[in-house]
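step=encode ok
step=design start
structure_in=
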């Protein structure tokens, strides 16, 4: 994730932690009030307040660790292509792996005898992006995977190869066009995903 994404995630946490801090302060004041009214010692009141503050700090630390892990994680990509695009798919696969991405392909990850649809759904559920190579010979499996990715709300990165047409449900999605010079397209794909 880039610095802009990190800043956006951090800023999204600020209102949450202001509300947590405000809640803790309110509870401390309430405990102090109750301790005064009920004649409880200030040491007990201070102990309760310390416990609440420690619990809030623990929650904050846990959430901070989760955010850091999420930022350190490599992008996970589901790569969909037909067998006619295998050479180009392998070039993109290699470039993404070299850039630190984890790439899922059916050829590499499906095992003989495994149920295809559940395996694909599981892989998509673990992916950050769906990269689809659309060629003239794109088959029903590629289109099925595309539909599954849309249904799961994955970010779709389409690459249209040669004279292939983009499916109508992707008409509003910015796509890359691969017409010969693959290195530039591969670089753009890697930049878009990593």
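sequence_out=
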């Amino acid at each position: 994730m880039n610095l802009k994404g990190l800043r956006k995630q951090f800023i999204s946490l600020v209102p949450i932690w202001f509300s947590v801090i405000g809640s803790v302060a309110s509870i401390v004041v309430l405990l102090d009030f109750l301790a005064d009214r009920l004649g409880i010692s200030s040491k007990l009141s201070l102990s309760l307040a310390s416990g609440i503050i420690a619990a809030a700090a623990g929650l904050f630390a846990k959430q901070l660790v989760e955010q850091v892990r999420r930022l350190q994680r490599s992008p996970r990509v589901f790569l969909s292509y037909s067998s006619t695009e295998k050479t180009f798919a392998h070039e993109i696969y290699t470039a993404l792996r070299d850039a630190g991405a984890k790439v899922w392909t059916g050829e590499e990850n499906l095992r003989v005898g495994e149920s295809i649809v559940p395996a694909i759904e599981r892989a998509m559920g673990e992916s950050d992006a769906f990269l689809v190579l659309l060629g003239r010979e794109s088959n029903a499996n590629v289109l099925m995977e595309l539909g599954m990715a849309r249904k799961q709300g994955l970010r779709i990165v389409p690459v249209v190869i040669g004279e292939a047409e983009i499916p109508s449900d992707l008409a509003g999605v910015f796509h890359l066009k691969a017409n010969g010079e693959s290195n530039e397209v591969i670089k753009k794909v890697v930049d878009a995903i990593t």
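step=design ok
step=annotate ok -> Residues 3-72 form one domain.
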